[in-house]
């Protein structure tokens, strides 16, 4: 017979069993920005991206919000239902932001913008928002700009945490042009609700070295077909990136963000297959 004593003895050993990091799990996804031209022209709607993700055996969609017709329930709720019934997770939304603002009305606008999109993400069931840091304003130092980004993200992180949404600051030029800067900002915020949205093609020097630096802080990953560094353009090494992520116990999505000139509808299926293979190989 199992007694309370047996249960207590078992419980005493349980923490050790669960202390080891979970095995890495990489999940293939589609970034809506890949179909920006089709979304702009109206050739595709956001529900169509859900269908494309399902047809290509992906797990999720990172919804770039630039072409949302509105943020009313009349748009958001049918989109959420379409994703659920297709077995696709809207796990992230990607927004525009310019957080390098000193205290004042411009900062207040950016803060309000973040809060609004946190509400939208929560309605869609997305657990992540990709945000931009912004350019270093004329006359300001990098240190000033970094502090301003952290000062906006800190209270936003509190609100995001209340809604179960993680903010991923992307390496996207400007104040986040260098891995060292973006890591400094994230550490200054010091919140479990703020991390790094790793874009594999946005560094233009020391590409893989900088990716490796921010990999421990990655909360979402967007992969591109090509990268460009000091030697010029080259095919992005997804296997190399995946190895870095696995070494840092990353569990989450790798979303294809297609930015090449060839037609996205005909060019992405082969890349989706490659992405599925990489995710399976390193999971």
Summed up, what is this model?
This protein has 283 residues and is an alpha/beta fold.
Strand content: 15-25%
User: What is the H level of CATH, i.e. the homologous superfamily?
Assistant: Divalent-metal-dependent TIM barrel enzymes
Rg measurement, Å: 20 Å
Low-confidence stretches: 1-17
State the end-to-end distance. 40 Å
User: What is the residue-averaged pLDDT?
Assistant: 94
Structurally, the number of domains stands at 1
DSSP summary, beta strand count: 10
CATH class (first level) name:
Alpha Beta
Helix percentage:
40-55%
List keywords for this structure.
283 residues; alpha/beta; TIM Barrel; 8-stranded parallel β-barrel; two-stranded antiparallel sheet; 10 helices; disordered N terminus
Outline the structure in words.
This protein has 283 residues and is α/β, with parallel strands linked by helices. It has a single domain (23-281), classed as Divalent-metal-dependent TIM barrel enzymes (TIM Barrel), CATH 3.20.20.150. Helices cover 46% and strands 19% of the residues. It is built from 10 helices and 10 strands. The strands form 2 sheets. Strands 1-2-3-4-5-6-7-10 form an 8-stranded parallel β-barrel, surrounded by 7 helices. Strands 8-9 form a two-stranded antiparallel sheet. Strand 6 (194-199), helix 8 (207-214) and strand 7 form a beta-alpha-beta unit. It is globular and about 45 Å long.
Topology:
Elements: H1 4-17, E1 25-31, H2 36-41, H3 46-55, E2 60-64, H4 73-85, E3 89-94, H5 105-124, E4 128-131, H6 142-162, E5 166-170, H7 179-189, E6 194-199, H8 207-214, E7 218-223, E8 226-229, E9 232-235, H9 238-247, E10 251-256, H10 264-281
Parallel strand pairs: 1-2, 1-10, 2-3, 3-4, 4-5, 5-6, 6-7, 7-10
Antiparallel strand pairs: 8-9
């Amino acid at each position: 017979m199992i007694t309370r004593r047996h249960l207590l003895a078992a419980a005493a050993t349980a923490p050790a069993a669960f202390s080891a990091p979970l095995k890495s799990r990489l999940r293939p996804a589609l970034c809506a920005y890949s179909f920006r031209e089709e979304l702009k022209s109206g050739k595709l709607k956001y529900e169509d991206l859900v269908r494309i993700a399902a047809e290509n055996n992906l797990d999720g969609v990172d919804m770039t919000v630039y072409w949302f017709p509105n943020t009313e329930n009349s748009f958001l709720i049918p989109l959420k239902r379409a994703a659920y019934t297709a077995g696709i997770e809207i796990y992230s939304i990607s927004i525009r932001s310019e957080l390098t603002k000193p205290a004042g009305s411009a900062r207040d606008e950016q803060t309000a913008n973040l809060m609004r999109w946190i509400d939208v993400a929560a309605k869609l069931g997305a657990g992540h928002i990709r945000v931009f840091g912004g350019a270093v304003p004329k006359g300001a130092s990098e240190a000033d700009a970094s502090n301003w980004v952290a000062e906006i993200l800190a209270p936003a992180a509190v609100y995001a945490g209340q809604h179960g949404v993680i903010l991923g600051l992307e390496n996207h030029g400007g104040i986040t042009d260098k891995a060292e800067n973006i890591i400094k900002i994230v550490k200054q915020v010091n919140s479990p609700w703020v991390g790094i949205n790793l874009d594999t093609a946005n560094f233009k020097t020391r590409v893989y070295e900088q990716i490796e630096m921010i990999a421990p802080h990655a909360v979402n990953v967007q992969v591109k077909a090509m990268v460009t560094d000091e030697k010029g353009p080259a095919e992005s090494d997804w296997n190399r990136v995946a190895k870095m992520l696995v070494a840092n116990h990353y569990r989450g999505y790798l979303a294809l963000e297609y930015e090449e000139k060839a037609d996205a509808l005909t060019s992405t299926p082969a890349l989706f297959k490659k992405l599925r293979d990489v995710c399976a190989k390193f999971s």
